[in-house]
Design goal:
It is built from 15 helices and 13 strands. The chain is α/β, with parallel strands linked by helices and 518 residues long. Helix 7 (228-239) runs parallel beside helix 8 and helix 10 (348-365) runs antiparallel to helix 11 (384-403). The longest helix has 44 residues, at 5-48. It is globular, with a radius of gyration of 26 Å. This is Peptidase S9 prolyl oligopeptidase catalytic domain-containing protein. The chain crosses the membrane at residues 21-38.
Length: 518
C-alpha cells in the first residue's frame, strides 16, 4: 500500500490535534481549578488581611513610588534630616515634623544603608503650646509577613483607628529582598544566610530615630509581627528587651540560628544576660501549615507549645499562677501575669557553664535535640534541674549585691555602666517622662473594635509575698506572657465574630503598659 504525502500530513495533524485536546483537557480539569482557588484565596487575603506567601520572583519595594504616593510633596523624607532640624521632640511648642493623621513614607539610615518604613502619627497626638510640653506617647512597630509590604500591613491590620483612640504612634517597617522575596533576617527563616541585613539593628534604629522626632514614651514600645515578622518580633524580645518592652507574635516562633531547641536555648542565654524582660504575646493556629503547631525540624521551627514553655521559663513566670479569660470552641488563651525574672539573672559565665553541662549530658546519652516524624517533632527543652541552677546562681548574685551591702547596690557600678550604654536613649526619655507624673493603673473597659469579644475577666489572686517582690524588683524586670490557641486555625491573622487579633494586641498592650495614657 502506497502512503502518500497527503496521508502522512493528515495523520500528523490528527495526532497534534489529539495531543492538544488532551493537554487542554488536563489543564481545564486539574490545573485551572487549582489556579482559580489559589488566586481567589490570595486576592481575598490581600484585600482582607496580612499576607505571608512564598514568591520567588516577587517585585521588590520601590521606595520612590511609596514616597510619591504617600508624602505631601511626593518626595522621600529622610529621618536624618528631620532629626537634625528637631531641637527637642518633647519640648514646648514642638510640633511633629511628620504630618499627623496621614500615613507617611520615611527613610532610615542603618549601617550606611537606607531602610524604609511608613509612619502614622495620630491626630490625637498631644498638641503642645508655648507653656506646655508634649506628653510622651506609646509606639507600636509593625513587621509584615513574607512578601507582604509595610504600607499594606499597616492598613490591613487595622491599627490606625486604635492609634487615634489611644494616642500611640505607628511605624510599619519594610523588609529586605532575600532568596524568598521581601523578608526579615530573623534566623533560619526566610531567605538570608548570614547576619546581613541586621534587622535587629534596624528595629533599634527605628525606635531611636522616632524618639528624636516625636515624643515617645520609651517604656511603652511594642513590636508586632505576623509570620516571618512575628519571628523577628520574638527575636527582638530576646535581643532587645531594653528597647521593646513588649512583643506580639502572630503565627511565629523563636527560630534563632541554628533553630529548633538550640535556637530556643540561644534566646534564653541572651535574655538571661540582660536586666530587662519583654512581655510576649503569641497567637498560633493548630493547623498552621507554614509554621506548624508541632514544629518543623527541617526549617528550624520549634513546636508552638515548646516556644511558649521557654518564654514562661526564661521570664521566670509562676507556672501555677495563670489566668484564662477566653474559652470558646475555637479560641483559648492563657495569661502568666507573675513574671519577674531579671533580678535572678545568672552571670554570663555561669550561664555558659550551665549550657556546656547541658550539652555534655545530652551528648553522653547520644540523644538528639529533636526526634520523631518531620513536621511533628517534640523539642527537648532544657531540663528543670539546669534551669534551677541558673536561678539559684542568679538569686545568690542578687542577694550578695542587694543585701550583703546594707541593701544598696554598691557592687554594681561596673554592671550599671554597661547597662547605661545599652539603655542610653531610655535615660533621656525617663527625665522627660518624669515631669509628667506617670501613674500606673490598669486600663479596663472595651476598645473600639472588640465589641463583646474576649472581654477581660480578672481572675487574679494575690500570691504570697507578691507585695514584697513588687517593691524589690525593678519594673523593667516585671513582664507578662500570654498565649492564644486557635483551634483549627491556619497561618492567618484571626479576625471573626468571636475574636479580633488586632483588638487583643491593643488590650495586651494596655495590660502590660498599665494603660496607654497613664
Amino acid at each position: 500500500m502506497k502512503v502518500t504525502a497527503e496521508t502522512m500530513q493528515s495523520t500528523e495533524s490528527g495526532y497534534v490535534r489529539r495531543m492538544t485536546y488532551w493537554v487542554l483537557s488536563l489543564l481545564a480539569v486539574v490545573f485551572l481549578p487549582l489556579y482559580i482557588y489559589h488566586h481567589h484565596t490570595l486576592f481575598g487575603a490581600v484585600a482582607n488581611g496580612p499576607v505571608s506567601r512564598v514568591t520567588l520572583l516577587d517585585k521588590p519595594l520601590d521606595p520612590l513610588d511609596l514616597a510619591r504616593r504617600l508624602n505631601p510633596e511626593g518626595k522621600p523624607i529622610y529621618m536624618k534630616r528631620i532629626i537634625a532640624a528637631t531641637k527637642d521632640s518633647c519640648g514646648a511648642a514642638a510640633e511633629p515634623p511628620i504630618p499627623k493623621g496621614k500615613i507617611t513614607a520615611v527613610t532610615f539610615s542603618v549601617d550606611h544603608t537606607e531602610r524604609h518604613g511608613v509612619v502614622y502619627v495620630p491626630n490625637s497626638y498631644p498638641t503642645t503650646t508655648d507653656t506646655r510640653s508634649a506628653t510622651p506617647v506609646p509606639m507600636l512597630v509593625l513587621f509584615h509577613g513574607l512578601n507582604d509590604d509595610c504600607e499594606h500591613f499597616m492598613t490591613a491590620t487595622g491599627f490606625v483607628p486604635y492609634a487615634e483612640q489611644h494616642g500611640f504612634v505607628l511605624v510599619s517597617a519594610c523588609g529586605s529582598q532575600g532568596y524568598l522575596g521581601t523578608a526579615w533576617n530573623s534566623g533560619t527563616c526566610c531567605g538570608f544566610s548570614g547576619d546581613k541585613p541586621n534587622d535587629v539593628g534596624f528595629a533599634r534604629q527605628i525606635v531611636k530615630d522616632m524618639s528624636q522626632v516625636v515624643c515617645v514614651e520609651e517604656r511603652k514600645v511594642m513590636a508586632v509581627g505576623f509570620s516571618n515578622g512575628a519571628m523577628l518580633a520574638e527575636v527582638l524580645a530576646c535581643e532587645a528587651p531594653d528597647v521593646f518592652r513588649a512583643a506580639a507574635s502572630i503565627g511565629g516562633v523563636v527560630e534563632m540560628r541554628p533553630g529548633n531547641a538550640e535556637g530556643l536555648l540561644r534566646c534564653t542565654e541572651k535574655v538571661r544576660a540582660k536586666r530587662h524582660r519583654a512581655s510576649v504575646l503569641m497567637v498560633h493556629g493548630t493547623r498552621d501549615v507554614m509554621v506548624p503547631w508541632d514544629g518543623n525540624r527541617l526549617l528550624g521551627f520549634p513546636p508552638a507549645e515548646a516556644n511558649l514553655g521557654e518564654w514562661v521559663d526564661r521570664n521566670s513566670c509562676w507556672a501555677d499562677e495563670k489566668n484564662t479569660t477566653i474559652h470558646t470552641k475555637k479560641y483559648v488563651n492563657v495569661i502568666f501575669s507573675h513574671c519577674n525574672s531579671a533580678a535572678v539573672v545568672a552571670p554570663e559565665d555561669a550561664v555558659a557553664g550551665i549550657r556546656a553541662t547541658y550539652q555534655n549530658k545530652m551528648n553522653s546519652r547520644g540523644a538528639p535535640f529533636l526526634s520523631g516524624a518531620a513536621g511533628a517533632l517534640a523539642v527537648c527543652p532544657m531540663p528543670s534541674s539546669f534551669r534551677t541552677q541558673a536561678r539559684l546562681l542568679g538569686n545568690l548574685t542578687y542577694s550578695m549585691k542587694h543585701h550583703g551591702r546594707g541593701g544598696k547596690d554598691k557592687g554594681e557600678d561596673g554592671q550599671e555602666r554597661d547597662e547605661e550604654k545599652e539603655d542610653d536613649h531610655h535615660d533621656k526619655r525617663k527625665k522627660k517622662s518624669a515631669r509628667h507624673g506617670h501613674k500606673h493603673h490598669a486600663e479596663e473597659g472595651r476598645h473600639r473594635k472588640g465589641g463583646k469579644r474576649h472581654r477581660r475577666r480578672s481572675t487574679h489572686k494575690k500570691s504570697p509575698g507578691e507585695e514584697v517582690q513588687r517593691t524589690v524588683y525593678d519594673d523593667s524586670a516585671i513582664s507578662q506572657i500570654e498565649f492564644v490557641r486557635v483551634e483549627g486555625g491556619g497561618h492567618s491573622w484571626p479576625e471573626d465574630n468571636e475574636f479580633s487579633t488586632t483588638d487583643y494586641i491593643v488590650q495586651f498592650g494596655a495590660r502590660v503598659f498599665h494603660g496607654y495614657n497613664a
